[in-house]
Design goal:
Number of helices: 2
Number of strands: 2
Shape: elongated
Largest sheet: 2 strands, antiparallel
Order of helices and strands: HEEH
Oligomer: single chain
Strand order of the largest sheet: 1-2
Distance between the termini: 54 Å
Helix content: 40-55%
């Protein structure tokens, strides 16, 4: 187990993941969250490349807004 601080380990893992995406020419999987009120970024690692939101929270919020608009 590493003795490095948690934040340093997370940054390192993120840098390695980003390098792998660039190496595999998969930069199209990096995008901005589809929620209008969010500027979060996401790296879509889903099999079919269909992820739209940076978090479950953003996805739920957008879906809830859509439901409320449909129900009037």
């Amino acid at each position: 187990m590493s003795t490095a601080p948690f934040a340093d380990r997370i940054r390192g893992e993120g840098a390695l993941a980003l390098a792998e995406v660039v190496r595999l020419h998969e930069t199209g999987r990096m995008r901005v969250c589809a929620a209008d009120d969010c500027t979060g970024l996401l790296l879509d690692q889903s099999r079919n490349g269909s992820k739209r939101f940076c978090s479950v929270r953003c996805g739920n919020r957008v879906n809830q807004q859509g439901f409320r608009e449909r129900m009037g």
